[in-house]
Amino acid sequence: xxxxxxxxxxxxxxxxxxxxxxxxxxxxxxxxxxxxxxxxxxxxxxxxxxxxxxxxxxxxxxxxxxxxxxxxxxxxxxxxxxxxxxxxxxxxxxxxxxxxxxxxxxxxxxxxxxxxxxxxxxxxxxxxxxxxxxxxxxxxxxxxxxxxxxxxxxxxxxxxxxxxxxxxxxxxxxxxxxxxxxxxxxxxxxxxxxxxxxxxxxxxxxxxxxxxxxxxxxxxxxxxxxxxxxxxxxxxxxxxxxxxxxxxxxxxxxxxxxxxxxxxxxxxxxxxxxxxxxxxxxxxxxxxxxxxxxxxxxxxxxxxxxxxxxxxxxxxxxxxxxxxxxxxxxxxxxxxxxxxxxxxxxxxxxxxxxxxxxxxxxxxxxxxxxxxxxxxxxxxxxxxxxxx
Amino acid sequence: xxxxxxxxxxxxxxxxxxxxxxxxxxxxxxxxxxxxxxxxxxxxxxxxxxxxxxxxxxxxxxxxxxxxxxxxxxxxxxxxxxxxxxxxxxxxxxxxxxxxxxxxxxxxxxxxxxxxxxxxxxxxxxxxxxxxxxxxxxxxxxxxxxxxxxxxxxxxxxxxxxxxxxxxxxxxxxxxxxxxxxxxxxxxxxxxxxxxxxxxxxxxxxxxxxxxxxxxxxxxxxxxxxxxxxxx
Amino acid sequence: xxxxxxxxxxxxxxxxxxxxxxxxxxxxxxxxxxxxxxxxxxxxxxxxxxxxxxxxxxxxxxxxxxxxxxxxxxxxxxxxxxxxxxxxxxxxxxxxxxxxxxxxxxxxxxxxxxxxxxxxxxxxxxxxxxxxxxxxxxxxxxxxxxxxxxxxxxxxxxxxxxxxxxxxxxxxxxxxxxxxxxxxxxxxxxxxxxxxxxxxxxxxxxxxxxxxxxxxxxxxxxxxxxxxxxxxxxxxxxxxxxxxxxxxxxxxxxxxxxxxxxxxxxxxxxxxxxxxxxxxxxxxxx
Lengths: 388, 232, 286
Known about the structure:
The complex is a heterotrimer.
Chain A lengths: L7 E10 L2 E11 L4 E5 L6 H8 L7 E6 L2 E2 L5 H5 L2 E4 L10 H11 L4 H14 L15 H14 L4 E5 L7 H16 L4 E5 L3 H7 L2 E6 L2 E6 L1 H6 L4 H7 L3 E11 L2 E6 L2 E6 L7 E6 L5 E3 L11 E13 L2 E7 L3 E6 L1 H6 L7 E6 L4 E5 L5 H4 L6 H7 L5
Parallel strand pairs in A: 3-8, 3-9, 6-7, 7-8
Antiparallel strand pairs in A: 1-2, 1-4, 4-5, 9-10, 11-12, 11-14, 12-13, 14-20, 15-19, 16-17, 16-19, 17-18
Helix pairs in contact in A: 3-4, 3-5, 4-5, 5-6
Chain B lengths: L1 H15 L3 H33 L6 H11 L4 H12 L14 H25 L3 H9 L4 H11 L1 H16 L3 H7 L9 H11 L2 H26 L6
Chain C lengths: L1 H22 L7 E7 H6 L2 H12 L2 E7 L1 H9 L5 E4 L2 H9 L3 E16 L13 H11 L3 E3 L5 H12 L10 E3 L4 H11 L2 E5 H11 L4 E4 L6 E9 L9 H11 L2 H9 L2 H4 L5 E2 L11
Parallel strand pairs in C: 1-2, 1-3, 5-6, 5-7
Antiparallel strand pairs in C: 3-9, 4-7, 4-8, 4-9, 4-10
């Protein structure tokens, strides 16, 4: 994927604020075109890490290398101009939308013609064409957010840092803007680091999820690994305890699809096409364990013969791990567990409804392959969503 | 009331006939105060930005001093500047006392704290994250300061108008360091005081009206720049 | 944007046009600082004399008109080159102390005691000012003094002394701290008495019909004599001694004296000053 080392490398970075250590990252790297999501509680150092990688915060120790060069020495501005950052607030200038998007280009001394061309292109990408001459003060929240994204991407950086850019937007707006952003990033070999609290967003967009706590990186893995195999309780609570299963749509029938996972098929309600790679997410509280086969007596479409592999106590209930051909987690009350005489190793029937599955469509390899964006893509994502 | 009408009539007559002495006085007022305002803007905005955008020990004291300076009585400034410029004073060798340059110097001292104080508060009112965003867009520090100044242009312009208004209307410093020498350092304000002292009230009122008219015209231009045609 | 850019460039141009004007400092030898009094300046005489002098000699005169006290203080500090004042006691001291040289008489005008037409203290036509002042004091009539250490104020204090009256702190004695014109305006408004030079009174009466009349005049103590004094270069080397000499010589020259004699006739109907250059002191009744 990358030639030579990673594009961005962080080693032993320590940052202090007010005499206190706020960041202690032993190692972090970012490859060309890689999309990394950064999740963690407020104050865990996510924004600090982003600012440090741009060379905007002084460090107490460690080094940050961008394409092998130390970010803190040499021509820092020239290096910074190969990156871009979007903050939580749009922070637009008191000028027109066009002038805002052109700001980064003008700072770099790009010629008038080239600037106009690029601004026009990115305004289109973010569906802001009609608003080019509108004053930034007169934009809605969503429009302002699009402008700040267009402004960052217009400089065509090698990496873009996004610090919760979609916070406080309503769901439809958020999903629409995220889709535009995704398409814009897909169209280039831009790497991205996205700080987010939205797990489905992280799942859908990322090649890798990094979980942080108290200034340290706790886990850094592919999304399904982080989700399914959280390294500790903390990560588990961050990502939410649910089963996430990668699979491929093998059949569809109106609103229903059958997804092949681990040799089995899962029926779900989603608008995905045959051949698409998706994630199926099942919440543990939606999984029912029975000792007799419920296929003919239950409305649940997904019924599997399973073996209990592990039982653990989690607060007021029990977490029962099952193997159905794919891993599954169920939450059961201790009373039910006792009543059914369940125990590790026992064979049982596990079931969950097709409507209880949240299907996340994986980001496509390239925008061209996907063709024009389906108009209600965001609706499909939200239709089966029961989480948040 | 007749007096004011007499004055108005006289003012119109003086302006229409382009009375050379009055024209000279008016032009000198505008030039001297204009130059002083220009100096105060250059110094005030750059120093104000330096103070507003940096952390350093004693910053609060500096801002307090600047804010106090905004209310400096012009006559006090005039007294101290004239003490400096006296022939036998520390800067006497410059031979600047009783010249228009001396008035420009004194008025610059009066206007600079005003512009600086307003610049500091205007820049501090900008969101702190804006600085980060501008740097993240790839700005050098100089470009960042320029962009912040542009963002704060509304209150900064008000500061310029306050500075200009403060000096074109002051009389204490103008008389002390300028000497009100006819045809050389006589400005609208010092001429008005002199004419009142002589009992020529109509001329005094005429000069006052011309001063007000000039102020109005200048501030009209500055306000136009401040409120310039905003896009839809 | 364009009209506003035009406005901005206009303002900048206006401001910058001042730069050459202010930067052009006149050559040091050709500039001269004349310290004189506000009443002298206000009479308008200098607006005639100074341009004539400048034209004749090429000097550039900066006329700084302040109170007599300040003018003399400027001479003592070497901040002026030549004095034209009318405060004999202080002038003599300046010369004695070595700060002033070549004190020469130039002209005189006279003071008059003015007051309201009703003349509540009944001083009209008094033989001496001392008499008049005694009457004012005993009747407690309102009297406005300049109170600013000017030549006029000095004169007034001398007259009170001659009347053996100390008006300081008395309720009817009010000090304005202002120039002659302003003080007369106040006297007119409040119906009080004042001591003034005739020239200021006449020009004020012409331009603004103040409600004051001349009540006491033409007695020796009311003479207001002007002298020109050059500031001693020996004490203050930076003084423009040549310029000071040139100016002093000019004001006592026949040409200037003629101008002085004619001054005021067209404005107020009578000459405002009497030229005295060359006359011995005794003749002036001092």
